[in-house]
Amino acid sequence: MSAKLWGGRFTGKTDELMDAFNASIHFDKRLYEADILGSKAYAKALAKRGIITSEEQASLVDGLEKVRLEWQTNTFVIQPGDEDIHTANERRLGEFVGSVAGKLHTGRSRNDQVATDFRIWVREESKKILTHVKQLVGVAVERAEREIDVLMPGYTHLQRAQPIRWSHWLLSYAWSWQADAQRLEQIIDRINVLPLGSGALAGNPFNIDREFLANELGFKGVMQNSLYGVSDRDFVAELLFWASLTMVHISRFSEDLIIYSSGEFGFVTLADAYSTGSSLMPQKKNPDSCELLRGKSGRVFGQLSGFLMTYKGIPSTYNKDLQEDKEPLFDAVDTLSGSLQITAGVLSTLTIHPENMKKNLSIDMLATDVAEYLVRKGVPFRETHHVAGAAVRTAEERNTTMANLSLSDFQQLHAAFDSDITEIWDFEKSIENRSSLGGTSKATVLEQVHKLKQWLSEK
Ligand code: ARG
């Protein structure tokens, strides 16, 4: 007889290479704790229905605890026949408690077992990732409040556009990350429904109390169809997309910092802790942290598309293709966990250079304000836009800035110009004018700080 758990109907041996190809223990051992939790709950549910005695239940729970301890202390020895975490734990349980171990799997299949274990693991890891996202928002909010008076050029098309507050730029990312956190919370809710009790596919024949199991394992509900229970991996796809989108935000943020830390911009300097040098050029200080964050995003997108390719062609219900759901997610979780913490580290330690930001504010960035000046004097905006454009052109032709044009220069462009036009050449004033909700004025940026702080303090 084969030593394999499923070996009863087999006479021939599996090919050695096939054994290795089939095995997932080298990666799914990360699920050990979730697997033990699921088994303990299942032992209790079996006892509740009188399938095993309470002594047998106690013995199983005790043995499972011993197995858990071995994993925890790194003393679990994986044997050649240990195909995956589920077979490994059951084999070891048998060595601790004897033949009663063989009762644990009554009515259960590795199909509902693995779906349950994975959901438990993903749920717990997602909660950890959520705290990293919140910490990152916290770092951005803290800086935004502290550095509220720093002004910088805002860009569109990477061309100087309008003056803004540095804090307004910072918070633009904080809002993206807040949305990421909210999305993750919603995904956690969808992960948190129980497949256990679905059996291999058709359901459990021992009237196992699935509500009880859900309660034991911290699930909010029970999956209502056993076929769906064992085959659904939408939560994996959702989380991989979530990870991808969050990496988009991190990557774009990193790209901004890479540009802002260049010699040409000089707006920020990354801390030594998050930079590296060149082996050849002694003067170099490179923003490697940000480049890695930008680069690692590609890796996460790859995991998402790779998994979707695997997932799309699988017929009902469990097929071994589904074993390929774990490595992409493990990798994405590791990448996200590292990236979020590094991003927070980069942001909390970088130095800003407000004087360089200010130096790059140029009078032409106030052209919109010139147009708005005329609007306030009753001229239609479409007309004022042309007039302000002409003022920019005149200044350019004279090789100077609009601030150096005389009142009569302006009045030649439009009769509504008056001596108060000189008040326009003030970057802070331009910024303070943007005081409608969501704008870059001090009050409206501080309002954002307040709202994000309030959100961070919830729960
Ligand atoms: N290692 C498998 C996986 O990760 C466990 C489920 C195996 N089930 C089966 N019917 N072969 O998907």
Write the layout of secondary structure elements.
Layout: H1 16-22, H2 25-28, H3 32-48, H4 54-72, H5 85-97, H6 110-146, E1 151-156, E2 159-165, H7 166-191, E3 193-194, H8 210-216, E4 221-222, H9 226-231, H10 234-260, E5 268-269, H11 288-312, H12 326-349, E6 351-352, H13 354-359, H14 367-376, H15 381-397, H16 407-413, H17 427-433, H18 442-457
Parallel strand pairs: 3-4
Antiparallel strand pairs: 1-2, 5-6
Bound molecules: arginine (ARG).
Arginine (ARG) binds next to helix 6.
Estimated helix fraction: 55-70%
- Report Rg: 31 Å
Order of helices and strands: HHHHHHEEHEHEHHEHHEHHHHHH
Kindly state the mean pLDDT as a whole number?
Answer: 97
Shape category: elongated
Structural class: mainly alpha
Strand neighbour order, sheet with most strands = 1-2
Low-confidence stretches: none
**Bound ions, cofactors and other small molecules, one mention each:** arginine
First-to-last CA distance: 56 Å
Q: What's the total helix number?
A: 18
Which range does the strand content fall in? under 5%
Q: Biggest sheet, open or closed, and with what strands and sense? A: 2 strands, antiparallel
Q: What is the number of strand segments?
A: 6
EC number: 4.3.2.1
Family: Belongs to the lyase 1 family. Argininosuccinate lyase subfamily.
GO molecular function, one term: argininosuccinate lyase activity
Domain Fumarate lyase N-terminal: 8-302
